[in-house]
Predict the structure.
Amino acid sequence: MQFEEIKINEEASYFKTKIENINFEQLIKDIQLNCEINKSTGRGKAAAHIKAERTIGTQSQIIIQTVTLLDIYDKIMNKIFNLLNYNGENMYPYYSVNWAYISDKFEHISYYHHHIESNHTVNVKMDWTFVYYVQMPNNLKNNEGKLFFKTENGFETGILPEVGDLLLFSSKLLHKPEIAPNSELERIVYAGNFVKLDYETDYLKKKKTII
């Protein structure tokens, strides 16, 4: 199954496909193990203007290698490469960073954000963000558990992903996962950022300096 483009409005869209031939039970175990051994695993901090006793979700960059983690990474990247015609002679260097995000019913805030700046280790802005749904919350009411998008002109829309859904969208597109206070299941996603690189760009000039 290839990506389907879904229009949000005239200025934005996202892409959706499915990857279902995955051992979800093992993938969840691998993600949990990664969170346990990664010293950088932590609860995401809310934006400065948001006052909350509880911070937002658990996020952990993927640092271990397992058969299941490597398998889902390969399947995701192959679908992205096919969509972007990024195979064979068109293949250039690329950068990707991948992480797990887990949230539960005790999270009571969520806010819009983007992924243009991936982290502090690279001198390049991200092009694409993907989210793969490993486990979804249950006992949902109204908009609970949905992923919301917000375009530059302020238009908002929400979708309810299913386990096995892979979403791909511009890293500059604002989005937020809605809370699920009635759920007995955690939301578990395998997510990442992706950008194509080339040899002609001077990436060091893009980095701000004091000179």
In short: The CA atoms of residues 4 and 43 lie 33 Å apart. The two ends are 50 Å apart (CA to CA). Residues 67-83 form the longest helix (17 residues).
